[in-house]
Each structure stands twice: as structure tokens, then as C-alpha cells.
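Working notes for the structural subgroup meeting. M.R. asked for a predicted model of this chain before we commit to crystallization trials. I am recording the input and output together here so anyone reviewing the notebook later can reproduce the run.

Input as submitted:
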Amino acid sequence: MLRAFRFIVELFTQRHGVVAFAFFLLVGLLMRQAPQTVRENIISTALGTVFYPAQMVVSSVGAYHSVVEENERLKEENARLRQETYYASEGLQELTRLHTLVRFDDKWDYPIVTARVVGHNPGRFLTTLVINRGTVQGVKEDMPVFSMNGLVGKITKATSTHSRVQLLVDPNLKLSVLEKKSRVVGFLESVDGHLLTAMIPSHAGVEVGDTLITSGLGGIFPKGIPVGTVKAVRKSDLDVMRQMDVAPFQEFSALEEVFVMEKEPEWIIQELLDEQ
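Returned structure, recorded in C-alpha cell form:
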């Protein structure tokens, strides 16, 4: 049909008027002599040939719009699937963390409350966290807070539904520690809200890579919670002591879930010490 249409167009564009007149005269005679069905077929074919380009354009436009709509639908579907995959991945990671937390719970003689970190202090150094558990869940001030990796800090304020956690790197938190190998007691603190330092007696022979844990002294933290490893040892102002840089086991900025140990402070210990 397309070839016939092109042939007719060429007849007129090339100004072959005589040939065109003879062609249409012949077609007219044949149409008069042809049966009804033949004439209908010829007319249908001619009309189809004339309108074929327009039909092609309309069909192409419709197909284009259909492709655009399908493309948009596929983009939306892809975005939705990506979001669902992200949520599934996050859920799987959280399930793994919580499963480890549940197993970790069995290591202590005190009830454990699991909590989610919901806020950080806005200062230059991270020294305080806010968790989504409070007095309604049994959380009280001075209760120890730790994670799967090690000691985090302690509760300094508890409301009905939320609590504030003082981190190990807060300069106001002093901690009694035990060197795991020699069993010698020292103390640990942060002087700048970022780095941890410990003072351990020189005779302990503490070396780089040794582990420090909570000593259990002081009445707040139970004995045996991992604190960190020694990364540098140097002399102090006192010959009988060694000053050490300590790398905590816990990455505080990456905390998402923590334990709160429902351990009441043993103030009687401090009272007895004060009497001396």
C-alpha cells in the first residue's frame, strides 16, 4: 500500500499530468465494469493507502505515550523495591544485634533492660546519650550501661520514659579498672572528653595490647565488664605508677542499642571508706 501511495504522489509531483489523467480514467472505467465486491475492495485499499501515513503517526504517538507511562511505572516500582530492600536489610541487622544482646544478658546476675539510643549531646565531643527507657521500665540513676562490646557509662538522670547516659569518655566519670592479666587495680578517666588514660602501678608490668576491665570497686559497676585495651605506656609523675592511653572497646558514636543493668548502687561501700 505504501508503494502505491508513493507511486501516485510521484505522478503529481513530477507533473506527469497526461499519465495521471490516463491512469485515473482507466481506474474509473475498471471501477464501473467491476463487480460490487471488487469496487469495495479497491476503495478500501485506496483509502487505506491514503490514510496509512496518518495512521502510522497516530499509532507511533500512542506507542510513545505508552512507553513513557510504562517507564514511569517501572521507575516507581524500582524505587519501591529498593526501599523495601533497605528496610529488610535494616531489620535483619537489628534482629542480629538484638539476638546477640539476648545471649549477652545471661552473663550477669542482675536484670537487664535493653534500650535504644535516641539522642546525642550536641557538643564537640560525644559525652552524653539519651535512651528510650526510664523509671517506668525500672531504670534509675547510677545504673551501669554497657553494650555487646563493653562498658558505655552510667545513668545520670531518669525520667518516666527516657534517661540520660554519662559516657565513659566524660571527664567527670572516674572508673576503677583491673588489668586482666596481672589483676592489678588502677583508675581510668578522660581529661579532654575524647581520649582515655589509665594509671596502673608500675610493678604490674602492663604492656601495649593488655586488656582493662571493671574492677567492681566503688559500688556502681560490677566486676568484669570489658573497658578497653592499652595502646601506649609511658612514665608518670610518680615512679610507682605508669600512665597509659586506652582504646575503648566501644565506639560510642556508633551505638544504637545498649543494656541498662538494674543494679542498685552499693553506697554502703563508700560509707565504710569515708569512715576511715
